[in-house]
Amino acid sequence: MALLLRNPRTLFLFFTLLGVLLLASTASAGITYTLKQSHAVPGETINIQAVLFNDTENAIEWRSPKNLVLQWRNERDQTIRSMAYLDGTPAAINVPVNNFVKLSWRAVVPTEAEGLQAVNIEGEPILLALDTSPRENSLIAGTPAAVPVIDAGAADDGARHDPPLPENVVAAAGASVEQGPSVNSTHQLASNTHSEFEKFRSAFSAYEPIYFDVGTKHGNNARFQVSFKYRLFTPNNPEDPGFFDNLYLGYTQTALWDLESDSLPFVDTSFKPSLFWHKGALWQSPQKNWFVGLATGVQHESNGKNDEDSRSLNYGYIQPELNYRFDGGSTLTFAPRIKGYFGVEDENADYRDYAGNIDWRLRYAQDNGLVLTGMYRHGSNGHNTTQIEAAWPLRRTFLNMNGYLHVQYFEGYGETLLGYNQRSSGQVRVGIALVP
């Protein structure tokens, strides 16, 4: 590894190999329907949910019907027809490449519905199952399955029953050997069996880019960044989170690493904890191609050093996000971060003169494809900074692995917090990104 880092030609050949691309895709588009409930008695409301997906090479347009006609059938040849009503206003929906749109209709279970119902949406070749029996004596959704798990189709010639699977096979699937839960209790069981660690882990998500890049200008060096955010409150309804459900704790750490010196020292590291509110779509157009988001919060940044090398500052910010979805399946985002500084340390009291008050950010991202980002800062007296990045998914190369081939260009001030007032000449670094 040390030889690789110290040999620019080897580095170049290595990362050139990462850029070899193999393109493969399958094309399909359609709509799938599901019932949100498994059990509902006559008079109760059920929800029919649909996912309209587009995996073709072109955008598709589809107008959601205001009403759906439902057919209800049971094993006693009972047939009922009723109506389901769209949640929201009917509109022409534009679905870009490699995207999907969720829709929902509501319907009331007919008064005369009895037992297990096979629900069909007229014109669609599907059947959805719903148990309409009274809850106190439901033999379908309310009764545990007190039978073993069988090896379906493995019965001997002439035998009328399939043999049970070995207990170790069933246990390995996370199921009980003796019996399974009722349909009605499955959701509650799943939610209760989540460990505290699982709840904790599910609150984490990506925040700023995560990458490790290597350059050779003025000696071998690396710049890398790790970043994540933690959601403070879990929404009761993930599709409609409340105001406080959009509160996050964020943490980003950026470092410049000297790979040329004997001890491979770190030049400087910036630690950036933050508290912020973010919602990606405060408003969107009826065609869902334009949408506006907002982020606002406070961030601390310091380098953890003492005396004359100590650097520290705080700022509050507001970041409007204007997004446009192209028909080809890509998104253009303009998200300027407007900053107001406070609590700036004396050693870097003139930080604003070099970093300015606005990070002008532009991002173009193809679905499962190229990601381009740019950031520009305009400080006082010509103290300007430019950072440009490009990323390509490694799954679309011969490596077929997670992550991205990542290229970063930086020129200007603030490559490190320690050297915020020192100009860095243009440098290109190449590496791997987990989050571009």
UniProtKB/TrEMBL annotation:
It is an enzyme of class 3 (hydrolase). GO terms for cellular component: cell outer membrane. Its main location: membrane. It catalyses: a 1,2-diacyl-sn-glycero-3-phosphocholine + H2O = a 1-acyl-sn-glycero-3-phosphocholine + a fatty acid + H(+); a 1,2-diacyl-sn-glycero-3-phosphocholine + H2O = a 2-acyl-sn-glycero-3-phosphocholine + a fatty acid + H(+). One of its GO terms (molecular function) is metal ion binding. Its EC number is 3.1.1.32, 3.1.1.4. InterPro entries: PLipase_A1 (IPR003187), PLipase_A1_sf (IPR036541). Keywords: Calcium, Cell outer membrane, Hydrolase, Lipid degradation, Lipid metabolism, Membrane, Metal-binding, Signal, Transmembrane, Transmembrane beta strand. Its cofactor is Ca(2+). It comes from the Bacteria. Binds 1 Ca(2+) ion per monomer. In the dimeric form the Ca(2+) is bound by different amino acids with binding of each Ca(2+) shared with ligands coming from each monomer. The Ca(2+) ion may have a role in catalysis. Ca(2+) binds at residues 263, 310. The active site is at residues 300, 302. It is a multi-pass membrane protein. It is found in: Cell outer membrane. One of its GO terms (biological process) is lipid catabolic process. Hydrolysis of phosphatidylcholine with phospholipase A2 (EC 3.1.1.4) and phospholipase A1 (EC 3.1.1.32) activities. Homodimer; dimerization is reversible, and the dimeric form is the active one. Belongs to the phospholipase A1 family. This is Phospholipase A1. It comes from Pollutimonas harenae. The lineage of its organism: Bacteria, Pseudomonadati, Pseudomonadota, Betaproteobacteria, Burkholderiales.
